[in-house]
Amino acid sequence: MRTDGRSHLALRCGITLGAALTAPLLLLAGGFAYDRLMHRLYWGEGPGPYSKEEGWVRPGYFVVNNTLVRALTWPTRRDGMLRRRTVRTTGSDHSDA
After folding, report:
1. In the chain, N or C: fewer CB atoms in 10 Å?
2. What percentage of the chain carries pLDDT values higher than 90?
3. Nearest-angstrom CA–CA distance, 40 and 93
């Protein structure tokens, strides 16, 4: 998608509307899809989410940066689960030997 068009506003509104309509599904299982998309866009071997030199942005960039999508997928995302995990200590680090 070219970065100089007016379609960005329509795409952002469409993503927000789609997230609002599928909110129960995103709350239950959206984190796994969100993590997969993040991995593909940022850490995968494919092209990145945007290219400033060529002047284009992938639609997935708007999905992962949408506030409503991030809020609805947070409970089931891996990084959200890691933040809720508590760290246990099993005792002192000193050995008695």
Report:
1. C
2. 15
3. 40
